[in-house]
Amino acid sequence: MHGRLSTIERYWQQAPAGVRAEWGAHGARVFAELGLSVVVVDVLSFSTAVDVAVARGIEVVPCAPDDDAADLAARGGATLASPRGGSAWSLSPAALAQAPLIQRLVLPSANGSALSAVAGKGGAKVIAACLRNAAAVADWLLWRGLACPERPVGIVPAGERWPDGSLRPAVEDALGAGALAAALARRGASLSAEAASLAGLHSATPDIGTALRDCASGRELIAGHHAADVEIAAQPDASAVVPLLRGGAFSAAR
C-alpha cells in the first residue's frame, strides 16, 4: 500500500480484511490512494449501463467531474451519451441494449462515472459491478488473486446526491455492493465490518426487485417513464461480464 494517509486515518483502512467497503468519491479516492483495486457500484444506473454496453462490445469511457465530456469524446473518437431519453446512447440500460453498435461511448454521470474516472486517474484497477454481474465479478477477482489481505479490494457504492451536492447513501447501491460482498464471502474472502454489513443487508432483503422499484431512485426512474431500466438493473447474476477500466475505457476483462 502507498501509506500516504495520516496516523489517525489508518483506522479507516479496514485492514486486514481482503474485502472492504466505503461510500462515494472520498471512499474511491482513499482506496485508490491505498493501492486497492476499486469496484464501483452504481446500480441505477451507471454500472448497469456499463454492464449492458460492454456485453455488446461497446467500450465505455467514464468522465471525471473536471473533464470536458464533449472534448473527451472528440479526442477519443467516441460518441457522447445524451441525458437519459435524449438518444439511443445514454445512461438508460434499456436504451443501450437496443442502441446501434458503436466502438466507444463517453458516459458521464455525477456518481458512478465520476468515481470510476477519479479512481482510475489515481492508479487503481477499477471494475464496474452491479446486481447483474456480482457473481461474475466475485469469481474474476478471486481468479486474479485479489480480495485477500495481501491484495485487498475496496467496494465503493456510489450513492446519489442531495440538491446541495452532498452524498445521499442509496439503498440500490447498498444492495449491489452487498451482493458482491456476500458472493465473495461465500467463496471464502474475509470481509471488513463495513463490507459485512452490506452483505447482511443484501441477504436480509427478501425481494430485490421490489426493493429497487420501491426505493427513492427506483420511484424517480419509474415516474420518469424508465421502469425498464429498473427491471434490467434488478436481474441478479444475469450477466457474466466483468467491465475492467483499461486505457481510459471499460471493456470486458479476460
Structure in words:
The protein has 254 residues and is of the alpha/beta class. The chain has one domain: Alpha-Beta Complex (putative 2-phosphosulfolactate phosphatase). The protein is 41% helix and 15% strand. It has eleven helices and eleven strands. It has a four-stranded parallel beta sheet with strand order 1-7-2-6, with helices on both faces. Strands 3-5-4 form a three-stranded parallel beta sheet. Helix 9 (208-214) packs across helix 10 and helix 10 packs across helix 11 (227-233). The protein is globular, with a radius of gyration of 17 Å. The model has no long low-confidence stretch (mean pLDDT 94).
- Please give the count of helices: 11
Strand content: 5-15%
How confident overall, as mean pLDDT? 94
Query: What does the main sheet amount to?
Result: 4 strands, parallel
Number of domains: 1
Structural class: alpha/beta
Measured as a percent range, the helix fraction is 40-55%
Q: Give the topology string: H per helix, E per strand.
A: EHEHEHEHEHEHEEEHHHHHEE
Looking at this protein, list some descriptive labels.
three-stranded parallel beta sheet, 254 residues, 11 strands, alpha/beta, putative 2-phosphosulfolactate phosphatase, single chain
Topology, pairings included?
Layout: E1 19-21, H1 24-33, E2 37-41, H2 46-55, E3 59-61, H3 69-76, E4 79-80, H4 93-98, E5 104-106, H5 112-121, E6 126-129, H6 134-143, E7 153-157, E8 160-161, E9 167-168, H7 171-186, H8 193-204, H9 208-214, H10 216-223, H11 227-233, E10 243-246, E11 249-252
Helix pairs in contact: 1-5, 6-7, 7-8, 9-10, 10-11
